[in-house]
Specification:
This protein has 126 residues and is an alpha+beta fold. The protein is 17% helix and 31% strand. It has a 5-stranded mixed barrel with strand order 1-2-3-4-5. The protein starts with 6 loop residues before the first strand and ends in a 25-residue tail after the last helix.
Length: 126
């Protein structure tokens, strides 16, 4: 975990999806006012978010979709997030790619489009 990491208990509004005009609100852990970690039906999710200027502990869904990063998450979201961030910060990108992504059970083939990192076509975000 980086000394600069800031964790706060907060809420995020997500939606609407498809033709559904409903927004969904989750309580979770905001990391550095940019990412929200929350649990929905035992799945651990991460999303990019924006802080609501009117309500400091309320976040709004960002430009990217969410990503399920765990399927059997239970417990305190603040503790889960802090432990996960510390573990990921202790890894380099190649370790993450070869030890985590490559061997995720049940994962199908997907394209991370990393070739953009070795050309002028795309810069990494985040």
């Amino acid at each position: 975990m980086s000394a600069q990491d800031r964790f706060e208990l907060a809420s995020v509004a997500i939606g609407p999806f498809d033709s559904d005009d409903e927004f969904y609100e989750y309580e979770g852990c905001a990391l550095n006012e940019r990412y929200m970690f929350f649990i929905d039906a035992d799945a651990l999710w991460v999303r990019s978010v924006h802080q609501d200027p009117e309500q400091p502990r309320q976040y709004i869904d960002g430009e990217s979709g969410g990503m399920a990063i765990g399927l059997d998450a239970t417990g305190d979201i603040m503790d889960i997030t802090a432990q996960l961030v510390a573990r990921l910060r202790g890894m380099d990108a190649l370790d993450f790619l070869t030890q985590i992504l490559l061997f995720t059970p049940g994962r199908g083939d997907f394209n991370l489009q990393l070739d953009g990192l070795i050309s002028d076509r795309r810069e990494p975000r985040g």
